[in-house]
């Protein structure tokens, strides 16, 4: 997933799921050159937060791989996701064996004795599609579980979410922001209409500002339609700031909005990966300019420590 819309989808899922889970993005699958877009493990201590997350909360109630598609996927793409699911399950079993083995014992990929194999939950695969993937639904004999959500046979642990079929409610808003065309336009309007302190706003607004998705350029292809829609939302957002007397000039307001969005996003990423942050780290993020925030944000996923993200203080 390389374009702005895909990066936005991956980030918004991770940030929303971090309210009640421990999500990872671009999880490397060692047995294949594939990466899971978002992998989420529910935190039992945050069941109350997850209960308030609507449909996304329901879908993340068990360990799950989330694979969003800006275009409607076909069988080949979904099979690739199923391969990730199975390979990741194999890796989870390997890790469980290694953790359960006595110190110094060898842990390899040989088939384990079923009586000694630690129990590992099979992760659910959640495929998020803009349109209705008829070939996929037919191939896996998916059955409608609720509007916009279909389940395959239980053994597959596969959920198909069709964004264009989700009801227009606040419970589905976060997911509908991953859509395109009419679905996205309606979701942006719904986002603007909900209360300022709604959790969906706290997750989505900084990401919409941060990613911009072609704010300074005209859409050049059908694939960039989402950029034009986000651009329109961003311009409406700036107009709202002007009307409320909080914009001191378009350039200054835009720069400040980008900085604030980048700051909020980076702090969320750092906390999700490293836990509670030292005051000195928060102060450095507060003082950083937009270029520094973007540079640090690019390092988060591959970093093992805070120093690898921020470097030594000057």
Shape: globular
Instruction: Tell me what portion of residues adopts beta-strand conformation.
Output: 5-15%
Most strands sheet: 7 strands, mixed
Cα(first) to Cα(last) distance is: 35 Å
The ordered string of helix (H) and strand (E) elements is: HEEHHEHEHEEEHHHHHHHH
- Helical amount: 40-55%
**Could you tell me the radius of gyration in angstroms?**
21 Å
Q: In order across it, which strands form the biggest sheet?
A: 1-2-3-4-7-6-5
Separate helix tally: 13
pLDDT averaged residue by residue? 81
| Helix and strand composition category | alpha/beta
Which features characterize this protein?
single chain; 314 residues; alpha/beta; 13 helices; 49% helix
Structure in words:
With 314 residues, this protein is an alpha/beta fold. The protein has 13 helices and 7 strands. It has a 7-stranded mixed β-sheet, with helices on both faces. Helix 1 (4-17) packs antiparallel against helix 8 (199-211) and helix 7 (181-193) packs parallel to helix 9. The radius of gyration is 21 Å and the shape is globular.
Any chance you could write out the topology, listing elements then pairs?
Elements: H1 4-17, E1 24-29, E2 34-40, H2 47-51, H3 54-59, E3 64-69, H4 75-100, E4 124-129, H5 134-139, E5 143-146, E6 149-151, E7 158-162, H6 173-176, H7 181-193, H8 199-211, H9 225-243, H10 250-274, H11 279-287, H12 290-299, H13 306-310
Helix pairs in contact: 1-8, 7-9, 8-10, 10-12
